[in-house]
Amino acid sequence: MRQFIRHPADIPIEVSPANGEGSPPPRLVNVAMGGLAFRSRRAFEVARIVKVRIACVRPPFETTARVAWCRACGDGYELGLAFVDPDDAFRARMVEQVCHIERYRRQVREREGRQLTQEQAAQEWIKRHAARFPASGQET
């Protein structure tokens, strides 16, 4: 079974059909070295090409992916996407690190009341969590 890098669910992702049809924003579940999985209110056809965008990073992460699988899950669907461009797997890993650092920054503010800059949050997150974050080409 494929293992995934868990994406923070509170960091939004936008997925829409590549032909431009509208779609409500899905809730991201996780990302793998070769693709990602997320929950959506809408089903997508297997093999459909979709546009993916994560706007919390600058510049926003944007790519094209293929729907690898789609299954009913609660009141919506869970989809698996495979990257069309193999280089996007590496880029996605970098984006995921930024997303995890942002989530860490928010958690510190909520739990401890400390206001960290992005740089301070990155330094703390790297010390505490980077050793457990999967290396490029490695799935955990």
Write a structural description.
With 140 residues, the chain is α+β, with helices and mostly antiparallel strands. It folds into 2 domains: 5-83, predicted glycosyltransferase like domains (Thrombin, subunit H); 87-131, no CATH class. Helix content is 27%, strand content 31%. It contains 2 helices and 7 strands, in the order βββββββαα. It has helices at 87-112, 118-129; strands at residues 5-6, 14-17, 27-31, 35-40, 49-54, 61-73, 76-83. Strands 1-3-4-7-6-5-2 form a 7-stranded antiparallel sheet. A hairpin with a 2-residue loop joins β6 (61-73) and β7 (76-83). α1 (87-112) packs across α2 (118-129). The longest helix is centred in the last third of the chain and has 26 residues, at 87-112. The radius of gyration is 15 Å and the shape is globular. The chain starts with a strand and ends in an 11-residue tail after the last helix. Residues 136-140 have low confidence and may be disordered.
